[in-house]
Amino acid sequence: MRARGMAPLDLESGRVDMTHGAGGRAMTQLIDQVFAAAFDNPLLAQANDQACFEPPPGRLALATDTFVVTPRFFPGGDIGAMAVHGTVNDIAMGGARPLYLTAGFVIEDGLPLSELRRIVRSMADAASQAGVAVVGGDTKVVGRGQCDGLYINTTGLGVIADPAIRISGDRARPGDAILINGPIGDHGVAVMASRENLAFETPILSDSAALNGLVAAMLDAVPEVRVLRDPTRGGLAATLNELAHQSAVGMDLDEAAIPVRAAVRGACELLGLDPLNVANEGKLVAICPPERADDLLAVMRAHPLGRDAARIGTVTGEANRYVTLTTRLGGRRIVDWLAGPQLPRIC
Amino acid sequence: MRARGMAPLDLESGRVDMTHGAGGRAMTQLIDQVFAAAFDNPLLAQANDQACFEPPPGRLALATDTFVVTPRFFPGGDIGAMAVHGTVNDIAMGGARPLYLTAGFVIEDGLPLSELRRIVRSMADAASQAGVAVVGGDTKVVGRGQCDGLYINTTGLGVIADPAIRISGDRARPGDAILINGPIGDHGVAVMASRENLAFETPILSDSAALNGLVAAMLDAVPEVRVLRDPTRGGLAATLNELAHQSAVGMDLDEAAIPVRAAVRGACELLGLDPLNVANEGKLVAICPPERADDLLAVMRAHPLGRDAARIGTVTGEANRYVTLTTRLGGRRIVDWLAGPQLPRIC
Predict the structure, then answer these.
(1) Domain boundary, last residue among A133, A160, A187
(2) In what order do the strands lie in the sheet with A177-180?
(3) pLDDT at residue A4 greater than cutoff 70
(4) Which residues 239-278 of B have a C-beta within 8 angstroms of A?
(5) Which of A59, B14, B171, B313 could form a cystine bridge with B226, CB 3.0-4.6 A?
(6) Chain B contacts of A66, Cβ < 8 Å?
(7) Are residues A325 and A182 in the same domain?
């Protein structure tokens, strides 16, 4: 809908400026012609400062994430699609079906409107593919040098219809199997390579993807799954250390079983990174009772986003909550989480 | 809870740095010692990437807002309390009781930890006073010059238990009464004065406040309320124009009835502002059938946040959706919304 007296924005060569955040006519133009045009759905069309709806039956899951990745376009993705995938995944990792997203934009004065529209359309496509609706939003414009182009917060609401589903980071038990849905490190290496203008023989693409379909298939087949978490910032190492701490268990990983693409391994060597510490945006760790691991692995491998799924380790009763790795050579080392920064603004 | 091997942060003289956003040990320190310490509640203590809960019966309302106000501390408030009030109010304006908030932080490298803690504590106090829990969050740290100190997104979820409550910006009808809960312009003038180091004889404080208690009292007494909206960015003029457009009605305001503090009026003259365009953070516009206006006004005036409530105008059938003002001198002028910027980064 175009409001009274609203001229079309110059979406080809115009730029966002301070008027687009000022609560007046220009902001309404931007919202109508860029955001509402892309995200169009009945709840957003309520055009109130809140979306109101009847919830489906079940427990609810609420999650938030802010995206500051640089560059905004990288091999395999962009900040818009990633802002949808990231929050959809946080909802899915609670065993929930994502329903609705809100989107909060902080935009730097001067951002080309064409770029904003491209990012917003990418968000809308990602939301549509994931089966979620963007039902509310907010736009702030800040001055030059007060933001690096564009930051996006998304917050998601999902529903857990089946009361038998109880996923939580504190439910890992000694003996449980640790699974992952595919190779690690793709996202971090893709972004880093793009940022540093590195070219590899085999192009490395971000794995940015919505995992809710995969999770639904997994929980349909194996409702006994105890833990799901996506190893984003800090990589697999940080995620497993968090889970070990939360469940008061140890973990032992089998280095040879952890999938890493050859190109990613090579790039990590070049960049001085350990793939275990590198961010992912389309991966999940699943922990389940050992007797259900084979079934779960089969379901994961049958899904396009789990073709290279693997069982990578076992939960232990180790009292210090250490995550250890049995190396290809048969040695064992502790997998710690990093104290310092690795890749800033990776997500 | 302090995680394994986590040393205490230097909350007196330390600063946020890039490690606090990197997904590792330092981020866990920051989350445990600043955020979890202040927001402590059972859902946050789940320590998962999503909060899971049984919703109370009723329709739900979901709203998001991002806060970039500068300066971060101003007379009568700060960015932290305001980030709670703003989203609580957006939920309340749907006629809903706010339940839960999420909080997403974008922090500039170098922000003093003491300041961050002060802001987070202010958020926690505001949330506690409003009766909402902060159940999830996210922290990103960006480099110097990539954010102006701190931006906060909050997203809120609320419930509308009474199916008779139907609040929406498209429900204003010709003849309806337009009410406001108190004087306009305080927030914008307080922030502007603080930014420009202006001193007034009477100090002007932001009206930043959570309006959910007031709204609950109003809807208890007068469930026939048709529209609620908080006139924030763009002020009363922008909000009424939005509502006129949404409901396809006109509005006529009585200038003499619109409460404006003398100090705010004086400051606006000095600064070249019209109070109608100045942002508020603790005000609401209510539109109700004319026969319920007196009752509603009485309930509003009985509440501490509505003592100076007033009936300021009437909805009309004017076909062009114009908002007009009958001046003190008996003239009439159109109240338009601003095309350009007024006060950037006011909320």
Answers:
(1) A160
(2) A227-229, A285-288, A177-180, A310-316, A250-254, A323-326, A332-334
(3) no
(4) 242, 245-246
(5) B171
(6) 104-106, 138, 140, 153
(7) yes
DSSP E strands in chain A: the ranges are 51-53, 59-67, 73-74, 77-78, 97-108, 133-142, 150-160, 177-180, 227-229, 250-254, 285-288, 310-316, 323-326, 332-334
User: What is d(CA B171, CA B173) in angstroms, rounded to the nearest whole number?
Assistant: 6
Residue A158 CB contacts under 8 Å (≥ 6 apart), including other chains? A60, A61, A63, A91, A92, A94, A96, A97, A98, A99, B50
Among A111, A129, A160, which residue terminates a domain?
Answer: A160
Chain B residues whose CB is inside 8 A of the A153 CB are 64, 66, 104, 138, 153, 155
Q: Which of A20, A52, A82, A144 to mutate to test the interface with B (most CBs of B within 10 A)?
A: A52
What's the pLDDT tens digit per position in B137-172? 999 999 999 999 999 999 999 999 999 999 999 999
Domain membership of residue A189 as a residue range: 177-334
Is B314 an 8 Å CB contact of chain A? no
Burial grade of A229 (CB within 10 A; 0-12, 13-18, 19 or more): buried
Q: What is the CATH number of the domain that holds B41?
A: 3.30.1330.10
Same domain, B211 and B325: yes
**Could you read off the pLDDT of B239-290 as tens digits, one per residue?**
999 999 999 999 999 999 999 999 999 999 988 899 999 999 999 999 999 9
Same domain, B65 and B183: no
Identify whether residues A91 and A190 lie together within a single domain. Answer: no
Task: For residue A185, give both structure tokens.
Answer: 């490190």
Q: Is residue B346 part of a domain?
A: no
Q: Do A168 and B48 touch (CB under 8 A)?
A: yes
> Which residues, given as ranges, of chain B have pLDDT below 70?
1-5, 339-342
Same domain assignment for residues B110 and B225:
no
Distance set, CA A106 to CA A65, A140, A183, B309 (Å): 14, 5, 33, 34
| Number of domain units in chain A | 2
Q: Give the max Cα distance, chain A.
A: 73
Residues B62, B91: one domain?
yes
B41 touches chain A (CB under 8 A): no
